[in-house]
Each structure stands twice: as C-alpha cells, then as structure tokens.
Amino acid sequence: MLKAGSTIGIIGGGQLGRMLAMAAARLSFRTIILEPQADCPAAQTANRQIVAAYDDKAALAELVEACDVITYEFENVSIEAVQELAEKIGVYPPPAALEISQDRFTEKQFLNESGIATAPWRLVDDADMLVSALAALGGQGILKTRRFGYDGKGQVRLTPENSRGADKINAALKDIGHAPAILEGLMAFEREISVIAARSRNGEVALFDIAENVHKNGILDTSTVPANISAETAAAAQLAAEKLLHALDYVGVLGLEFFVMPDGTLIANEFAPRVHNSGHWTEAANPVSQFDQHIRAVAGLPLGDTTRHSDCRMVNLIGDDVLQVEAILAEPHAMLHLYGKAEARAGRKMGHVTYISPKKG
Ligand code: AMP
C-alpha cells in the first residue's frame, strides 16, 4: 500500500492521464507523466513531465528511479517497454492485459476463452482470406486492423455491394493499409453499453453502473446512466466484466464494451485496460470516480463504493463543440471538464460535460 506522498508514474499524457493525476493528487500522491508532447493535457495537472518517447530507454529508467508504481493511460504503448519496466517496478494494469488488448485477434480469443461471447470473427491477412471470411460471415462485416485502431480508425464496413470482385476486395485491404486484420460479423444491435470495472491488488472487485453509449463517426458522443436495459442484461454484463477481471488477474480500472441485441443478449466488442471515456460520468454521479478507483487500485488501497447518487448524461465536446463552453457554464446541473488542449481540431476530444439529475433509475 503506497503511503501519502508516494509517486505514481503515468505513461501517456492525454486527458485520461490528466484526470488520473487529479485523482492521485486528491489522495496525496505525486505524479510524473511520460509523454513526448510538451505541455500535454496530463502534464498540466501532474507534478512533473518527462518529455520523451514512450519507449525511450533513458526516460523509462528515470521513471523507474523516480516512481513507486507505474500505470498507463492508453493502449498503444510499447509492450516490450512495459514488460521491461515490470521487471523493475510494479506496473498496473498487468502487462499481459495490455498485450492481449493491443491485438483484436488475441483480445477476441481471450474473451471467447473466458466464456464471453463476441461477434463471429475471422483472421484476414490477405485477399484470399478476406474472400473466405466474407463467405463465412454472410457476405458482410467490418474489416478492422488487428492493431492500432481506435475511435473507428482502421475500419471498413463491407457489404455485398462494396466487396464483390477482386478490385473491391483489394480496395478494402488498401483502405486499412494492408495491415493484418480481422473481419467481424455485422451485429444488428439495439444499443451499445459499457461496464467500468475495477479490481484491487488483492482481488477485490467493484463495478460501476452500466452506461448506454452512442457513437458518432466512430467516436463516443454520449453516455447515459442508467442504461435502458433489463436488470438481467445489466447483471450479465457485470458478471462478464467480473469474469474478465479475474481471468486477466487484473489490477486497476478496465472498460468493457458490449452490443445489446434485440433479445437482450450481449456481444462483447472490446475492452480497454485503462480508465475509459464511457466512465467519465462517474466523476459527477459517484463519490468515487473511475479515476479515483484506478489510483486506489494501483496504489494498493481498498476500492471505493460504486453506489451512484445521480442519474446522468455525459456529452463529449469534440472539436468545435468546445465553442459552446460559455453556454454550458450557464447550464444548471452541468459539470464541465476541459482538457487544456490549445487547438480544437476536428474529431479531437476537447472536454466533456456531465448533466446530473436526482437518481430515479
Ligand atoms: P470499435 O473500434 O471496435 O469500438 O468500433 C467502433 C464502433 O463501430 C462501435 O462502437 C460500433 O458502433 C461499431 N461497430 C464495431 N464493430 C461492429 C460490429 N461487429 N457490428 C456492428 N457495429 C460495429
């Protein structure tokens, strides 16, 4: 268990790191951010930033020297670097969870082996494999790169119209840069939900309520809690998250996303071994947020109560949405969180706002 004043290293300097650093400060922990971009969102709320690449050997050695424990705030950090760190210092979530989640193939395989249903999927390395995969999955699906995809990037939706014939098959592969991929069956889901789940160093589990998520252009737009799902579906989603945490021997917060089918059955889409955008509402609707919970877990502290006190709706502020800030500041029951990013580029997450109301659901 880390003592107050101890230092937590965070690899990655985005908004998730920013909010983790704020949560760490509330518990009297110091934070050091490793991030190549100077004055990144996380560095603005942390004690210190090491400005270097995530796999810079000297920077990683400096981080080990200066920290008591290390965590990370995004998935695309070098697994080799994280594994090397773990030989010298506690790294949470465990590198194995990161490694599995970095590749959609190992991720789907692990979910399936853990008894968690996913969309049917096939490996796609080349044109022949894509043709057979399409045939096996009913002539349509979503082609996704195995690695480095996020917010809908590295994906192509294939239908019989845009995938019949060698030219169209090759065009689809070109669209994803001919990267190793999987083809996933297209799920006619009714809604999307996620579970934000935490596991402590001694195996205790805490689950937040389920959020219902709406994506726009592949990017999360809103999360609403409670989700409009039955108690059985909610319980099944939480049970799956708990199973996954134990199977990964996990420490920290994890986000697990599902599609809810019209009959209420659940199809897991993916999990993220970190705090998650669809859990930002917890900072407004819970006494202990997902960020507090993650810091508690990595610091070896007991997890906090996840009982929600309010219903809520979190809205992401993407690109120019941030121009509405003045109006949002005047709105009742709105908790605004801005990420300290200077430039509002299209598609860039600039902040979020959570609207709360007395708990009914
Ligand atoms: P992902 O990057 O895998 O999270 O996918 C981004 C979004 O694309 C998801 O949140 C869904 O809205 C949609 N999507 C992904 N996979 C599928 C699928 N197999 N069937 C239908 N929609 C999907």
UniProtKB/TrEMBL annotation:
InterPro entries: ATP-grasp (IPR011761), ATP-grasp_carboxylate-amine (IPR003135), ATP_grasp_subdomain_1 (IPR013815), PreATP-grasp_dom_sf (IPR016185), PurK (IPR005875), PurK_C (IPR040686), PurT/PurK_preATP-grasp (IPR054350), Rudment_hybrid_motif (IPR011054). Pathway: Purine metabolism; IMP biosynthesis via de novo pathway; 5-amino-1-(5-phospho-D-ribosyl)imidazole-4-carboxylate from 5-amino-1-(5-phospho-D-ribosyl)imidazole (N5-CAIR route): step 1/2. Pfam families: ATP-grasp, PurK_C, RS_preATP-grasp-like. ATP binds at R104, K144, G149, Y150, D151, G152, K153, G154, Q155, E192, H215, N269, E270. One of its GO terms (biological process) is 'de novo' IMP biosynthetic process. Its EC number is 6.3.4.18. Keywords: ATP-binding, Ligase, Nucleotide-binding, Purine biosynthesis. It catalyses: 5-amino-1-(5-phospho-beta-D-ribosyl)imidazole + hydrogencarbonate + ATP = 5-carboxyamino-1-(5-phospho-D-ribosyl)imidazole + ADP + phosphate + 2 H(+). It is an enzyme of class 6 (ligase). One of its GO terms (molecular function) is phosphoribosylaminoimidazole carboxylase activity. Coiled coil: none annotated. Residues 108-299 form the ATP-grasp domain. GO terms for cellular component: cytosol. PANTHER family: PHOSPHORIBOSYLAMINOIMIDAZOLE CARBOXYLASE, PURINE BIOSYNTHESIS PROTEIN 6/7, PUR6/7. Catalyzes the ATP-dependent conversion of 5-aminoimidazole ribonucleotide (AIR) and HCO(3)- to N5-carboxyaminoimidazole ribonucleotide (N5-CAIR). Catalyzes the ATP-dependent conversion of 5-aminoimidazole ribonucleotide (AIR) and HCO(3)(-) to N5-carboxyaminoimidazole ribonucleotide (N5-CAIR). NCBIfam families: PRK06019.1-1 (NF004675), PRK06019.1-2 (NF004676), PRK06019.1-5 (NF004679), purK (TIGR01161). Homodimer. Belongs to the PurK/PurT family. This is N5-carboxyaminoimidazole ribonucleotide synthase. It comes from Paenochrobactrum gallinarii. The gene is purK.
